Amino acid sequence: MTRVRGLDLARGVACVAMIQAHAYDAYVDAPHRGSTAFAVTRFLALLPLPLFMVLAGMGVALRVERGRARGEATATTRRELTRRGGLVLLSGYALNLLYGLMDGARTIGELLRFDVLHVIGASILLLGALLPGRARPTLTASALVALWLVPSPWLQRAGQRAPDGVRLLLVPFVDISPYTKMPLLPLAAWCALGAACAQVALRAPRVVAAMALPLAVAAHLGTEAWAAVPGVTLARTHPIVWLNAVDLAARALVVIGLVLAATARHAGPSRAQAPWLALGTGSLRVYALHLPFAYGALGRPLRAIPDMSVLDATPWVASLTVLTYALLRGTDTLRDRFLAWRYTRDAP
User: Fold this and answer.
1) Rounded CA gap, 250 and 183, in Å?
2) How far apart are CA 251 and CA 216, in angstroms?
3) Calpha distance 272→42 (Å, rounded)
């Protein structure tokens, strides 16, 4: 697979933000969760998911365009994207099982939970089925943004009122307790947005960042104002989710635009970029490796420390970031040695 360095760097930024988000949430004690410092960590914690989703959509769009440019059969493009999305989706369920064994999960809801990897993988599957072969895939992706975002509040309500047997079938699409954490509606709209914006982001990253920043500010202020109206709650069942989705997607585009613009100034990867590139290219493993030390059994000793503030937690959060990177590089080394062993074993 041909990789775009700037997108891998942006994915590395998302990985670091994800580790910080999960670690602070896991380690900071209740009395300190009302502090300004914790509020800052929660503000930053909103970035990783939309950033990963938009980047996934960009990856799909670039793969579709690459297949079209070299005259590849539509079925071949669809097959590769199906394999890519299916791998992420199945990894999500495999991790549910692994974490369940590590942490003693006892309910079917925990084992079948539809979470971050699931929604990313399923979104790639959907775009991989719908975009290849289209005469104007960017226009199709733009239409999917509206299709998956606009009706989502009413579809969420309808899904929650559906009969039990039907509700189980809706688990990937809408919030169905206790199974769904990250539903496709409206989150897949972020992936479609990435597909719609991929080409312009690569051609004019500064323009994308400059346009997305005021949009993020306006959408954020609009969300806050709407949420202040009596009777309005920020939830996926309310149309306020439209502004919230635009806000978070625009933040992701700001980061992507800035990283792409900075990357364009360097002909090749620098030593300073190497850790971010490693995290970005290994983002699925980063997700898998750090979570047990935050929310799982391996993080239990830290979560048991009483009265931990954001300041107290910061060295532990930094240590987890370094540990995750070290584990990632360790798995890279093991993989490379295994591949070298297979090559020498199979050589005549």
Assistant:
1) 20
2) 6
3) 27
Q: Which two tokens stand for residue 123?
A: 């979104």
pLDDT digits (tens, 9 = 90+) for 279-297: 999 999 999 999 999 999 9
Can you tell me the distance from the alpha carbon of 291 to that of 178, in angstroms, rounded to the nearest whole number? 20
Residue 105's SS3 state is coil
Q: What is the pLDDT of residues 191-218, one digit of tens each?
A: 999 999 999 999 999 999 999 999 999 9
Give the number of domains in the chain. Answer: 1
Domain of 194 in residue numbering reads as 5-346
- The size of the chain, in residues, is 348
What's at 53, amino acid-wise?
Answer: M
Alpha helix locations (H) across the chain?
Answer: 5-27, 36-45, 48-69, 74-103, 108-111, 116-130, 137-149, 152-161, 164-169, 184-203, 205-227, 240-264, 274-281, 283-294, 300-303, 310-346
What is the pTM for the complete model shown?
0.94
Torsion of CA 44, 291, 54, 180, to 10 degrees: -100
Distance, in Å, from the CA atom of 209 to the CA atom of 310, rounded to the nearest integer, reads: 30
DSSP conformation letters of 124-161: HHHHHHHSTT-SSHHHHHHHHHHHHHTTHHHHHHHHHH
